[in-house]
UniProtKB/TrEMBL annotation, chain A:
The chain crosses the membrane at residues 25-42, 48-66, 73-98, 104-129, 141-161, 181-204, 233-256, 268-294, 301-322. It comes from the Bacteria. InterPro entries: ABC_transp_permease, BCAA_transport_permease. GO terms for cellular component: plasma membrane. The keyword Cell cycle does not apply. This is Branched-chain amino acid ABC transporter permease. Belongs to the binding-protein-dependent transport system permease family. LivHM subfamily. It comes from Aeromicrobium piscarium.
From TrEMBL, chain B:
SUPFAM superfamilies: P-loop containing nucleoside triphosphate hydrolases (SSF52540). Pfam families: ABC_tran (PF00005), BCA_ABC_TP_C (PF12399). It comes from Aeromicrobium piscarium. GO terms for cellular component: plasma membrane. CDD domains: ABC_Mj1267_LivG_branched. InterPro entries: AAA+_ATPase (IPR003593), ABC_AA/LPS_Transport (IPR051120), ABC_transporter-like_ATP-bd (IPR003439), BCA_ABC_TP_C (IPR032823), P-loop_NTPase (IPR027417). Residues 9-241 form the ABC transporter domain. Keywords: ATP-binding, Nucleotide-binding, Transport. GO terms for biological process: D-alanine transmembrane transport; L-alanine transport; L-isoleucine import across plasma membrane; L-valine import across plasma membrane. PANTHER family: AMINO ACID ABC TRANSPORTER ATP-BINDING PROTEIN, CONSERVED COMPONENT OF ABC TRANSPORTER FOR NATURAL AMINO ACIDS-RELATED. One of its GO terms (molecular function) is L-phenylalanine transmembrane transporter activity. This is ABC transporter ATP-binding protein.
Length: 332, 244
């Protein structure tokens, strides 16, 4: 990770603003060109391609939300949260338990799961991580979140068993978008994720609390000296990260087959997205999420099975090769 | 040390030991309300560590810090800062991702939660340190002199009673020093209590009412600046080379 920071420094030192504005535009250009190329020379039915693009974007919106939680936790606390996927699974099972045993509709269950997961994240940071984070340890929190991941997954396995379960859907039907089919549930997940992402961006940019979070991300010691309670900001940030995951979990619950390890793939993807978008950048996480969603569904047109995931890593490596700090990486 | 009726900050037997090194060694001072206390000493004398201890960034190994009648020893830095005891850094540490106004607003938010009022107050502070034209600039684009003022603004934005200034003049060219000294004099005149670490003796002598000389962590001399600087022990330990 230090390499990324250094690379960001050396390139952005020359002309920080220009660099920053150009690269995301370039990325958008490449994505559009690639899509056009697939339509023209891709040798696939154009209806199928449109369907893949729509599905990819819808999927990417949810990836974005999961990744925002991760990038926020990394950006502010410097903690690589290995339990992120497991926290998503936990949120999914919360929603599952509330809908199946208490009969609460899935989206209402999500609203209940969000504060619960916020509290969970808050306590994890406050009780398990704060001391280590404050001391500037990196491997300590990493090992703890790894342990936490195992704890969550195995507890869920113990309580719910390993058999796949599903949350009863609530909204049937679908919409046709440019000839492609988008189910309402996936549309709700996409727009819900973008809405939460936008609210979070507003919170960070406009509120005093958001400003404290940014000050801690920028310089924790300096923040403490102007009266910011750094430990509290850490705990709140982890809580917000967990709450993002809870929203993502609740929104995807209607079309996800639940097992205690369902979140694992999200951990890996979210890491890819966060590094792709630029560590600590919320906008980067959103862009990265959409790109990875697209790569996965378009890739599935050409490569069978898990081959699409392979393509994700190819894109990831290419981006890192040409822009090691990620698309929106601006860490000075 | 004798009791002074108006003592605002009293430091008693303050000691900080690191493995094998005593960075601050049994420092005891009473800082009176509205006093301007200069602190000098060679590099490594423990001046900055003393500030870190007072500001709550490091815990003292021994000793007590009493601020405005309250024992604040061991308080975390944010609590000390909110209580009205604020330090600045020799090397400026602005929040790079935020503009000057936002940098100051972080501090004004602590006592003024309403965003509009916090913003207003931050602008006032920015004007007070004459940074008005940089209000929306990013720290990376600021010249050194302006960064020094930003550091000062962030501290002032907390409405401190006592401000600990760590070499606010370092890195400024002589032409920039005079306005800064004037600003410090004004702030002190407005009622601020100041502890002032500085290497530039002309500034120390121009501003300080009392002078503490530190050497190898310990208190070498404390008293009237002119008398202290003529003390042979002080001259030998520190000033001999620079101040001839």
């Amino acid at each position: 990770m230090p390499q990324h920071a250094n690379a960001a420094e050396s390139t952005s030192a020359a002309s920080p603003w220009r660099q920053q504005a150009r690269s995301p535009l370039l990325a958008a250009g490449i994505v559009i060109l690639a899509l056009a190329a697939i339509y023209l020379f891709g040798n696939r039915d154009s209806g199928l391609v449109t369907q893949s693009i729509v599905s990819g974007l819808l999927l990417g919106g949810v990836y974005a939300l999961v990744s925002i939680g991760l990038t926020l936790i990394f950006g502010v606390l410097g903690v690589v949260n290995f339990a992120h996927g497991a926290m998503l699974t936990l949120a999914l099972y919360f929603v599952y338990a509330l809908t199946t045993s208490a009969g609460i509709p899935v989206y209402l269950s999500t609203l209940i799961a969000v504060p619960l997961m916020f509290g969970f994240g808050f306590l994890v940071q406050r009780l398990l991580l704060n001391k280590l984070t404050t001391e500037g340890s990196h491997e300590g929190p990493l090992l703890i979140t790894l342990g936490l991941q195992l704890l969550i997954v195995n507890t869920l396995l113990m309580v719910f068993g390993g058999r796949p379960v599903s949350v009863p859907g609530s909204v049937d039907g679908s919409l046709r978008v440019f000839g492609a089919v988008a189910t309402y549930e996936r549309l709700i997940a996409f727009f819900g994720a973008l809405l939460v992402a936008a609210l979070l961006t507003l919170l960070l940019r406009r509120t005093s609390f958001g400003m404290s979070i940014r000050s801690v991300a920028s310089n924790a010691q300096g923040a403490a000296l102007v009266g910011v309670n750094v430990g509290r900001v850490y705990a709140m940030t982890f809580g917000i990260g967990a709450a993002c995951v809870a929203v993502a979990g609740g929104l995807t619950a209607p079309f996800t087959s639940l097992t205690p390890t369902v979140g694992e793939s999200f951990t890996v993807l979210a890491f890819v997205i966060v590094v792709l978008g630029g560590l600590g950048s919320v906008v980067g996480a959103i862009t990265g999420g959409l790109i990875i969603g697209l790569v996965q569904t378009i890739g599935a047109l050409y490569l069978p099975g898990t081959g699409a995931l392979l393509l994700v890593f190819v894109v990831f490596v290419l981006v890192l090769l040409f822009r090691p700090q990620g698309l929106f990486g601006v860490r000075p | 040390m004798s009791e002074r009726g108006t003592s605002l900050l009293s430091i008693e037997g303050l000691t900080k030991r690191f493995a094998g090194l005593t960075a601050v060694d049994d420092i005891g001072i009473e800082v009176a309300e509205h006093e301007f206390l200069g602190i000098v000493g060679p590099n490594g004398a423990g001046k900055t560590t003393l500030f870190s201890l007072i500001a709550g960034e490091q815990r003292p190994t021994e000793g007590r810090i009493v601020f405005d009648g309250t024992d604040i020893t061991g308080w975390p830095a944010d609590r000390v800062a909110k209580a009205g005891l604020v330090r600045t850094f020799q090397l400026m540490r602005p929040f790079e991702s935020m503009n000057v106004l936002e940098n100051v607003m972080i501090a004004t938010h602590q006592h003024t939660p309403a965003p509009h009022a916090a913003r207003h107050k931050a602008l006032d502070v920015i004007e007070r340190v004459q940074l008005g034209r940089y209000a929306t600039a990013m720290p990376a684009s600021l010249p050194t002199a302006a960064l020094k003022r930003l550091e000062l603004a962030r501290a002032l934005a907390l409405d401190p009673q006592v401000i600990l200034l760590d070499e606010v003049l370092a890195g400024l060219v002589p032409a920039e020093r005079a306005p800064m000294i004037e600003l410090l004099r004004t702030l002190h005149g407005e009622g601020l209590t100041v502890m002032f670490i500085e290497h530039i003796m002309a500034a120390v002598l121009a501003l300080s009412e009392r002078l503490l000389v530190m050497h190898e962590g310990a208190q070498l001399a404390l008293g009237d600046p002119r008398e202290v600087t003529e003390d042979p022990v002080v001259v030998e330990a520190y000033l001999g080379e620079d101040y001839a």
